[in-house]
Amino acid sequence: MPPLTSHNASRMAYNMASAMASAMAYAIALTMAYAIASPALAQELPPVPRLAEAADLDPDPALVQVALTAAETGDPVFPYSYADGGIGPIIRVPLGASLAVDLDNALSDPTTIHWHGVAVPEAMDGTLWRFDPVMPGERFRYAFPVEQAGTFWYHPHFDTARQVDGGLFGALLVDDPAAPAADDELVLIFDRAMESHESPRGEAGHGALMGGWRINGAHAPLAFTARGGAAVRVRLINVSSVGYLDLRWPGIRHIASDQGFLPALQTPDRILLGPGDRAEVEWLIGEEGFSVENQPFSLNGGETWQAPSELLRVAVTEPAPAPDGLPWPFSGAAPSDDPPYSDIVYVFAGSDRTGEWFINGEQFPAVTVEAVPQGSRPIIEIRNHSPTHHPFHIHGNHFEVLSLDGQRPPYARYEDTVDIPVHGRLRVRLFADNPGAWMTHCHILPHAEEGMMTVLEVGVPEGPPRGAP
User: Fold this and answer.
1) Which CATH architecture has domain 344-458?
2) Where is pLDDT greater, at 4 or 264?
């Protein structure tokens, strides 16, 4: 045996600690394996709440009419609500119908509704560059045709970080008649309440990003029980102001993203959702359950060393062989080539230490407005020169991802919100079909409010800019 020097003692202590950590991890794994295979243990967790759907107030099948009231709740966690203290109701619209939403503002502050990911007329987009907010006591009707199927969401674009963090959000689901009917559909809205209160810099900082997740308003972890042999369509929406979801579970089947169904089924090992991002997946329930875990993710570099946390435990009743995947209407589209030029370049810069954020050296609203012709397909390059991730989001129009850090995606990827890693470079082709002046910004909401937002004009919008934040 070698002499017990300080170095050897440290080495022995390290080996013992590693062995103890490995044994503990193994014990935890065994416990989790037993738990997720057992419906009885899954029931020890509270069930994930099912979200209510908004009532359609018009019998015309070509029109969905909904009434929403933005009100104060008195709840210190979710002080605002569209639904008497709960998460905003699911608004469900068939593809090709029109949607009319009457918003009554019962808040003491102005507000708006932005339809995240939806190509709406500019006057319906809920932004203040050219239009006024809905004042306290006022009613405003948002009305527009719905021409893109997918999973979207709605939220204010006035005092955005505070009002969204306070509970003003909900899911907008546009159903594609070509999609098969699943045995069950689960809508999961992920949020971290009171994010603005966690940062040492106040509401503008990053704060603690590692825990405190809620699903449909309830503290995670939660339980979901499904019948063996069932195919479940799951819609995932991250409405957090600053938090990233890095979701893992066995056998991921990714079927849709921001702008509807993917060109083909994807089977990644993770689903990464930045603030504002969405995805749809298919769960083929068999004889054993599983756990949906979240790998802690830092804005300053991505995946961290911490152990993952369980968000949702899926248990099985009436175990049976897993069904085949459903015949989703995949297009089979191949990714486009990335040309050797850019029409627009946006440089994201700033620091979470100063709370100042810039696009091309400018802070909203004192920005240079880029303009492209309606019907054009401009190439936009976004360079992240900052020490944090940024989810890049464009209003009113969507884009195809051409490359990220020089890597072409394996499929035609159509999005409206995409994460750009630290010092990353994103290149997209914009489908500039919807005329108007559109907010273009980071969807970490404090970043946008501290300057990381600009305006992109498609066609020739009517009226002068207001220049309001």
Assistant:
1) Sandwich (2.60)
2) 264
Question: For residue range 201-249, what is the model confidence (pLDDT) as tens digits?
Answer: 444 445 445 568 999 999 999 999 999 999 999 999 999 999 999 999 9
CATH fold of 184-317: Immunoglobulin-like (2.60.40)
CA distances from 34 to 40, 338, 405 (A): 10, 48, 41
Backbone angles phi, psi at 195, to 5 degrees: -60, -30
Task: Please give the biggest Cα pair distance in the chain.
Answer: 87
Which element (helix H / strand E) includes 426? strand 425-431
Contact indicator for 192, 309 with CB cutoff of 8 Å? no
Q: How far apart are CA 369 and CA 455, in angstroms?
A: 5
DSSP result, 307-346: PPEEEEEEEEES--PPPPPP------PPPPP--S--SEEE
The C-alpha atoms of residue 369 and residue 436 are separated, in whole angstroms, by 12
Query: For residue 11, what are its two tokens?
Result: 């080495």
Q: What is the pTM of this model?
A: 0.89
